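User: quick one - fold this with adenosine-5'-triphosphate bound?
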Amino acid sequence: MKKVKGKILIIDDDPDVLHTARFVLKTQFTDIITESDPNQINYLLNHERFDVILLDMNYTIGETSGREGLNWLEHILQINPAQNVVMITAYGDIKLAVETMKVGAADFVVKPWENEKLIATVYAAFNHSQSKKEVERLRSKQEHLSKAYATPETEIIGNSSAMKEVFATVKKVARTDANVLILGENGTGKELIAKALHQASQRNHEAFIKVDLGAISETLFESELFGHVKGAFTDAKEDRLGRFEIASGGTLFLDEIGNLSMQLQAKLLTVTQNREVFKVGSNVPVPIDIRLICATNMPLYELVVEKKFREDLLYRFNTVEIRLPPLRERPEDIPLLSEYFLDIYAAKYRKRNLKLSNTAMNYLQKYFWPGNVRELQHAIERAVIMSEEDELKKTDFLLNDKKHVPSQEKNYNLDEVERETIKEAIERHAGNMSRAAKELGLGRTTLYRKIQKYGL
Ligand SMILES: Nc1ncnc2c1ncn2[C@@H]1O[C@H](COP(=O)(O)OP(=O)(O)OP(=O)(O)O)[C@@H](O)[C@H]1O
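Assistant: Sure. Structure tokens for the protein plus adenosine-5'-triphosphate:
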């Protein structure tokens, strides 16, 4: 018969009891640990997690009141309030055994026991412990999922060759468990791609948990990511699961990894190498099973050269790398995205007949889009709200004109480029010629000569 994967601890000062209990239970469970000295409870509970503890009521010779067992039970529940404990009691102690259940014992078995009865009682406690764990895991997962689903999902739009390549990579790697690193400027769709990878993976019925590492303070990092046990620090009023544990079985998306301090990078490396976490305040390792997706808008490879990002951590993250090009490098996606967002917002603001004029579309395609797709999305939403006619015009978009790159009509006339550059520098330094000259790398006299030449 296949044994159940479970760890049972038996604490009794009578070696015969330990021996027979081990003999009976090892036919059912994979790990049986016996201990004759209850003073070892602290050590044991701080180093391992037990599914069920079988605990004797009396230890000191001549002691039959059962009080000792009750005290040890309270002690165990203080260390781990969720621990399942089955009391071992002599026939005369049944009244006290019932008392222990009020304190928090899961059940009791009476010595001498029938083997079937012992197995059945430990099984029931074991199943209870498993369902308690599952309930806690599901509760935390649910909390995160409801937050995640508060924001509606969007399609991923793109017809440029760069985006087609991205889609092909997503398709290829989604079903593997390979770690994926997504690089790209703000608003290029890194999170969207991470979600797409999760949705197309075999883990899609499990949670997708996002952690914005840029938003977590250094002090809360461990508790947020690895969890904590009750009493680990002043505010730790109860046990809490970390994001790694909640994501177990699913996908963990670590955003903004470029912002991590060296110290936190070291911690993350250990966790991703060993695939287990230690909750703050606990020495018990918790195994984790996650698919890891990381993202950043920082130049990670440069940070490695500057020794600001660990090379070993980068190579742990980048088994597969996806680079999302900035929107200005794929202007052919702009009409598609613009129409897509226009549809959404025209419906939302009940302006269904709204169209984009050709001049407006032209204008959008030439803009620099420093905030990428997110900026385009906001620009369209704002224009839809502000528009008073059936057609969105160039003037409905409040874009920063300085950031326009008329790429197709780019001017390669050196004189004109020089004239524009000088004009911009003078404007930027509010007419301060020394500063403008310095920025342009020119002497003041040369600058004046050129101002005269170009009639500025
Ligand atoms: N290809 C796309 N198709 C449709 N919507 C997109 C696309 N790319 C990005 N978006 C939208 O743009 C917004 C920003 O996307 P997302 O949050 O995925 O970007 P990000 O790269 O993770 O940004 P940040 O670096 O700021 O976290 C979202 O509302 C997203 O739905």
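One thing worth noting: The two ends are 92 Å apart (CA to CA).
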